[in-house]
Amino acid sequence: GKTTTSGNGGDEIKIGAIFSASGGAAPLGKPEMETVKMLVKQWNEQGGIDGKKIKLIAYDDKSDQNEAVLSAKKLIEQDNVTAIIGGTISGNSLAMIPQIEKAGIPYISLAASKQIVNPSDGSSRHWTFKTAQGDNIVIQKLLGFLKEKRWLNVAWLNVANAYGTSGHEEFVHYAPEYGVKAVIEEEFEATVDDAKAMLTKVKKANPQAIIVWGTAQESAVVTKNIRQLGIAAPIVESHGIGTKSFIDLAGEAANDVWFPAGRILVADQLPDSDPQKETLLKYKQDFEKAYGYAPTTFGGHAWDAFHLLANAIKEGGTEKEKIRSALENTRKFIGISGVFHMSKDDHTGLDADSLVMVQIQDGKFVLAEQ
Amino acid sequence: MEAWSQFVQLLFSGLTVGSIYALVALGFVITYSVTGILNLAQGDFAMLGALFCVTLVNDGVPFVLAIGLSIVAVMAIGALFERLAIQPARRSPVAVLIIITIGASFVFRGIALLVWGTNPYALRPFTGHGALEAFGAVIQWQSVWAIILSLASFAALHLFFHRTYIGKAVAACVINPFAARLMGIDIRKMSLGAIAASAGLGALAGIVIAPISGASYDMGMMIGLKAFIAAVVGGLTNAPAAIAGAFLVGLLESFAEGYLSSGYKEAISFGLLLLVLFFMPNGLFAKMTGKRV
Amino acid sequence: MEHGQRMTDGRKRWLWLAGAVVWLGLPWLVFGNNYVLSTLVLIGLYALVGTGMTLLMGYAGQISLGQAAFYGMGAYTSAYLTAHAGWPAWLALVAGAALAALVALVVGIPVFRLREHYLALATLGFGVIMFTFFKEWKGITGGLNGFFGIPPIRIAGIPLQSDWQFYYLVSSFVLAGGWFARNVVRSRVGRALRAIHGSEVAASSLGVNITKYKLQIFILSAVYASVAGSLYAHYVTFINPDLFGIIPSIYFLIMVIIGGTASVWGGLVGAAVYVCLGEWLKAVVPLLLPNAGGEFEIVFFGLLLVIMLIYMPNGLTGVAPQGLRRCWKTSWRQSERATAVDSHKARSIGGEQG
Amino acid sequence: MSAMLLEVEQLSKSFGGIQAVQNVSFYVKKEDIVAVIGPNGAGKTTLFNMISGIVPPTSGFVRFQGAIVSGKQPHELAMLGMTRTFQNLQLFADMTVLENVMVGFHSRLKSGIVSAGFRLPRTVKEEKQAQEQAFFCLEQVGLAHLAWERAGTLPYGMQRLVEIARAAVSRPSLILLDEPMAGLNPQESKQLVDVLLMMREQGFSFLFVEHDMETVMAIADRIVVLDYGKKIAEGAPEEIARHPDVIKAYLGEEAV
Amino acid sequence: MLTLRNVHVHHGHLHVLKGIDLHVGQGEIVAIVGANGAGKSTLLGTMAGVYAPTEGEILFEQKPLPYGKAEKIVDQGICLVPERRQIFDSLSVRDNLLLGAYRRHRRDGQEVKRDYERVLELFPKLQTMLDRPGGLLSGGEQQMLAIARGLMARPKLLLLDEPSLGLAPLVVKEVMGMLTQLCDQFQTSMILVEQNVRAALQIADEAYVLERGQIVMHGKAAELLADERVAEAYLGAAGRR
Ligand SMILES: Nc1ncnc2c1ncn2[C@@H]1O[C@H](COP(=O)(O)OP(=O)(O)OP(=O)(O)O)[C@@H](O)[C@H]1O
Ligand SMILES: Nc1ncnc2c1ncn2[C@@H]1O[C@H](COP(=O)(O)OP(=O)(O)OP(=O)(O)O)[C@@H](O)[C@H]1O
Ligand SMILES: [Mg+2]
Ligand SMILES: [Mg+2]
Where are the domains of chain C? Predict the structure, then answer.
């Protein structure tokens, strides 16, 4: 839906946004949209950017690539926005990028694929940035953890969609570096009701640990099934399960599951020395007050994107190239997903330290010792 | 022995999944055999049933009552859907009716999204989290419930269609609505009843599944699709065949996943289904159709 | 009657002229607005698929729930052959169409032994299987991560990259496709197909080879979809399997139903209405409900769809005003289709009952 | 004197346990009108369906213009010059009357999907010819004024005439008619009888099933009588009318 | 028993019946004859609640008929045996017959059983094929089934649309005889639409001639049978039938 927040002509800054607030990626896109709406309201109440009100023009691409492309065109051609945030999922971001690059508009994607900033076909990414840790970063964190625990023979299970396969690719790419080996690799459907058929094979392979790479709903089913089959190996999962609903869905079975996650999940458990703690707590508080539930890492990506952009506009004014170079020169920006250090070659600016390992204990997310 | 227990495990998995498809497939069959409509919103009844039940349970309504209430609520929605969307379009071509049900499915999904948001919800199992062990394989109690309920619904339906007078009248409605009217069969009432009943069955299916796989606003689509396939493989107007079809699809998927690759699971089951269709074009369990020149 | 015919012809010429002016002039009318143009391009691509499906549904009497598979075949063939094998785009487009035709032939032979809903299921199954291929055949399709960097299509060495260029390209295809379809429909072949729709036994006892014609139309519709897919790939330059799954197939079906199969232009009308409706809702819903999200659009879209189909089950081309339709139908007029025909009766005449 | 057109040899058909047709043999010569009569359920329609290729015979064969045709598809038979009408009308209800008849001309046209799609001159010419022929045929059965009506809205009797026109427009050498008079009132039947007789003059041959004995007696050159799937009699109308078995099984005592 | 006053019916824009007045008395057989497309089937359909009149009134047993509500009309005792048979083709012959009594099976189950036996006696041919799907019967067999199914409703007024269509001459005779018998035994009234005009007029009491949606002639059946105009128009020129 198109939403117009405040702003009556004249001195305003138009920011375009595209989220997958409905459709398949809605669990990701909805908190993103809500976060940005909340932030725009906050900033405008405090006078906007340099006295100029922010006008947010947000579209819902319904998790559909064509909708995303059309919405991007609309933002560029019709709404004449200064910059664009969004593209909840990688496919949609990737489909939008060519025209955004052509039009020359600063763009911050919220999706994870590294293709968004480092395309394998070498096409231009002058204007494109992103705020989500790529799967390469998450996998490295996870592999580091496995290495530390000396769980080197693992079972790899991923959900059969873009999220799952991209995780799998990174895993295959980095595992040797950490001395980790998959004794079995399997895929399961996002709509899985019963994964025991697949898990019997896993049980036979006798891994030291099982990695389940999926989002909350399907991972919960698999996790429950692992426990039901009485497989004793520890379970390590992806950052995609970092929501309350995973714990609800998996129930008892969720306990003891490990996974890498952004700090937002365990904000209050962080040591006071953590540079992000204050920012995290503030976001958490604000979001909970506005929407009545805890913020997600995805909302966090949107928070980062908005602030990065707002700061760049503060610095560079409404001129596009100036905003872009301000973005590229971001240093030590303390955000939700981590501390950002952008550069010409790194349009993400995050590394594995932006993540922590979390374990579920008694139905709670608990920060594992570093 | 190892191989044996894997086999049994796969069998259990297949039965679990199959029973879920079966419950929804029965809904398809009822609607189709009374109205001649393939109701692609059938899966969404499951979704609505599950989410209603979750909400009621969370609000402290006793479990059994919550189940009953959600089924009744979804039946009411089904009835409303029939009156507002199906009845006025009775005379449209089949394809149009199918698309109308798709449209209705959008509406249901959109409303669910509005009310319940995007998060998946959990529902507690009917009888404890325990599992049953046999031959070195495990099956959750909830799966046993699913299987029992699907078989019970089937038995009830079978009796209804083949042993009761009304059952025959119901069948007559789709075979020749014009003649059915002349026999004094109230097609509109039949169609209302059928869709409400299949909505109720759908809701029951959703409630049974929710403890196994969770409940979310978008769960209807995939369940609906698979159940649709199950129903067609069996033969659309034939309840026992649809049940058999559902278990067949469930087992096929489970064994394909266990013994072959899981990535191609869908393609394998669909592919085999195509073969079945090609060699038995009216479904596996087709009877004489009564068509000639 | 002779007189009336000539009058119609005269009026028709003016209509053609006006149409041509609008067609050629549109990019200037919406000057500089690539958004509008790309909406039109998208409509055009959908319309191309829809025209094929209109033929299939309206004339071969077959619902296809897997049309996006052919769309995808065109897109991936073009993408792979141009990006990795260095073929010229036009050749790749033809190759895609040939591949789709071949697949349609192979699939069609067994599929058309089926009837009614079983046939619908078979096409659905085919769609799912093709989707799995797109997804799993990573070496060629790039899997779920998608296929990047598809080179542009060229005419006389000039790469077509801007929206207005694509607008002309795609709309030419749509017009040519529509013209071809219209001719087919008004010929012996189209008549045979409609006859099959009415009564298969009767058609065959008059010399109509049912399987052959159904298969030909199926192949034709596959070619339409494949060509549209190729054009899409060159237009957006990034494709991924989700674009060619079951949901898009259902959307194509919706478009054709909205447009109606009473005329071969049903596909175009349906695509236009479908896309515009979506865009319109995007604009209107927030005005009505300022805090609503995308979910409202879904609800409204669903409601509109239902209402529209209840009141015009034969689609928009089925209820188009008589005058307009007379322009479309030159060879002879057709009695008002919209008169409420007791469907039961109609069925017992045409069907195989009894 | 005239050549054999159709020869049916020892044709049988059973459906599961039901012997619908048993060892039936007969023939039709050029410009013959042969009637098949018999009680309800005697196997007449089944016999027709076998001859026209809609159902395969269980045993026996059919020879058409000297060649064995059993096992051929209906559309192949139509191409060879054998068309039929149906006991339960099989009109294309959503098409106009003219279009219905034009479909009948299908077997005489050649243009395929490609030449039709590009609207090659050949196609245009063929279309014109088809339309003219169809119109002519409609005129002959007296329905030209209804050419533009949707076939499904016509009353039953006229639909029958359309079906006959549709079967005749391609000028096949043999037309099979399954109860052509059913639903026509006597006056209309008479009109149809005239049409059929006129068509015979033009070289058509007919094989038809009919319960209206008046018509049968009026136009049939020969009559084949079936009962319980078996042929019980064959001969000229006068013979049949007097045949005791036929009277007992079919006509009843005070026959025509 | 049944009275129509100035009944008009439209199909879409088509004005099919233009002011029909008609009366059927208790135990009477009324024949309606007329050319193809005159509106005979439409007339019967209107009485059976398939179509609703746009003007005029229909009284059944002094009460207005519930227009367009077929199931209510069946309850009141009117049953239509439609043209083209309209068999439930994938249901067995037995089920087809039983469905004929759908409206009353709960009220008087025993009687339905007796009727079932009785109807099968009338059509012994059907007895041999009770388990076959109705759609596989031959044309004439289906016609018998349709009539038998209509009788199962035990109507006070039976509407028959071309019942002799497709029946062998011997069977036509039997059916016509049976209808007279039925009429006498059970005081069932009947409206008979027939192309086989002679057969119809022979058993009917009253007769109406319908042309282009209007009654053009009406009288005692025997009188019409003797009428020259009728003979010329409907009995074939020779008037032999
Ligand atoms: N497909 C079928 N399956 C089973 N039985 C069939 C089938 N077709 C016909 N029969 C049976 O075979 C017998 C002959 O049927 P057919 O239709 O040939 O009779 P007919 O002589 O045309 O009768 P009528 O004069 O009533 O039309 C009938 O008893 C019929 O029920
Ligand atoms: N459902 C319908 N829709 C539109 N027109 C119809 C419909 N049914 C009948 N008609 C038209 O109404 C007129 C009367 O038809 P009807 O079937 O009542 O005639 P009929 O006297 O029974 O003819 P027949 O002797 O052929 O059975 C005809 O012109 C017919 O075309
Ligand atoms: Mg017959
Ligand atoms: Mg009639």
Answer: 62-242, 245-328
- Residue C6: pLDDT band by 50, 70, 90 thresholds? very low
Amino acid at E168: A
pLDDT of residue C337: 30
Q: Is E198 within the bounds of a domain?
A: yes
pLDDT digits (tens, 9 = 90+) for C116-153: 667 777 888 889 889 988 988 888 888 877 887 888 88
pTM here? 0.82
Report the gap between the CA of B280 and the closest CA in chain D (Å): 18
Kindly state whether residues D184 and D167 are assigned to the same domain: no
Note the pLDDT of residue A147.
93
Confidence of residue E235 (pLDDT cuts 50, 70, 90): low
- Report the nearest atom of ligand 1 relative to the CA of D38: 21
Between D and E, how many CB-CB pairs are < 8 A? Answer: 102
* C-alpha neighbours within 13 Å on the C-beta side of residue A354: 30
What does the pLDDT look like over A17-38, one tens digit per residue? 999 887 778 778 888 999 999 9
Asked if C209's CB is within 8 angstroms of D93's CB, the reply is no
| Bridge partners of residue C116, in order along the sequence | none
Number of domains in chain D: 2
Q: A346 alpha carbon to ligand 3 midpoint, in Å?
A: 82
Map residue E38 onto helix, strand or coil. coil
- Whether E220 maps to a domain, the answer reads yes
- Ligand 2-lining residues (CB < 6 angstroms): C 341-342, 345; D 153-157; E 11-12, 14, 16, 34, 36-42, 83
| D184 shares a domain with D76 | yes
Helix (H) or strand (E) holding B289: none
CB of C270 within 8 A of CB of B99? no
Residue C168 has pLDDT above 80, yes or no: yes
What Cα–Cα distance (Å) separates residue A139 from each residue in A122, A143, A254, C128? 24, 6, 21, 31
Residues on chain C touching D78 (C-beta within 8 angstroms) = 204-208
Pick D179's closest partner by Cβ from E11, E141, E166: E166
A242 CA distance to ligand 1 centroid (A)?
A: 69
C178-235 pLDDT, tens per residue?
999 988 888 888 888 888 888 888 898 898 888 888 889 999 999 999 999 999 999 8
Same domain (yes/no): D68, D117: no
Q: Are residue D248 and residue D177 in the same domain, yes or no?
A: yes
Evaluate whether ipTM surpasses 0.95. Answer: no
For residue B131, list its beta bridge partners.
B140
Mean pLDDT of chain A: 88
For E228, residues 6+ apart whose C-beta sits below 8 A from its C-beta are none
Strand order in the sheet with E14-24: E14-24, E2-11, E55-60, E63-64
B135 has pLDDT over 80: no
How many independent structural domains does chain E possess?
Answer: 1
Q: Within 13 A of D200's CA, how many CA atoms are on the CB side?
A: 17
Write out chain C residues lying below 8 Å of A40, CB-based. Answer: none
Residues of the domain holding D106: 92-171
Query: Lowest-pLDDT range, A116-120, A339-343, B133-137, C240-244?
Result: B133-137
CATH number at residue D12: 3.40.50.300
Given B117, B138, B262, which is nearest A198 (Cβ)? B262
Over range A39-55, report the average pLDDT: 90
Instruction: Judge: B175–E133 Cβ closer than 8 Å, yes or no.
Output: no
Closest residue to atom 12 of ligand 2, CA basis: E16
Domain endpoint, select from D108, D140, D171 = D171
Q: Is the Cα dihedral B149, B155, B160, B161 positive or negative?
A: positive
CA distance E13 to chain C (A): 7
**Dihedral of alpha carbons C303, C305, C306, C312, sign:** positive
Could you report the per-residue pLDDT of A263-282, keeping only the tens digit for each? Answer: 988 988 999 888 999 999 99
Give the range of the structural domain holding residue E21, as residue numbers without chain letter.
2-87+143-239
